[in-house]
């Protein structure tokens, strides 16, 4: 038999519904052994599977229509069902499995890898009159009891928010927060410099959190690929959305 560190990466033996095959890959077990018959996953995230597994790539929950209304994009979920084992990954990002026990958790839609169908989910957004690139085209609020797998680019920071202080984070780095928190968006620079990528300071839009809960921040600021957007309008290139600065009141709070 071949002797190699590569071939030592055999399948993790587990009947858990969601378990880490490694830090970059999720193993989801369907069928009698785990008690899970179906789950939702990021469309296109399957890298391998075994057994009688079905992938409904045309699945569109009602939330997709809300997401499209807000952002012009559909909710990129597929329904996975059957009996077998499914391996999921996304661009070799780090994967974290959370057990939700009733409290709401809001995750950037781009960072949701998979979640159990018994979790209730809804599309939410930060209440603002313009769209800000990097603040999350849409966010998924998950509530109930079940597992969810979340991706991050690098090992994240988890900030514990308390009512005794003010907490801020770069909108391009925040990927999740407790739904009980009050969230607002604000410009970190003057309105004229917002038109330039990140203004003069390198930090254009901040999220402010208040209340009590957790905020997850990844060590990567996901800026739009300006050079690849040649030919688009300037507002779109610099993260201001289709409305540009029109009607900008520097944002209010999120009502959730």
TrEMBL record:
InterPro entries named in the record: AIM24, AIM24_sf, Trp_RNA-bd_attenuator-like_dom
Protein name: AIM24 family protein
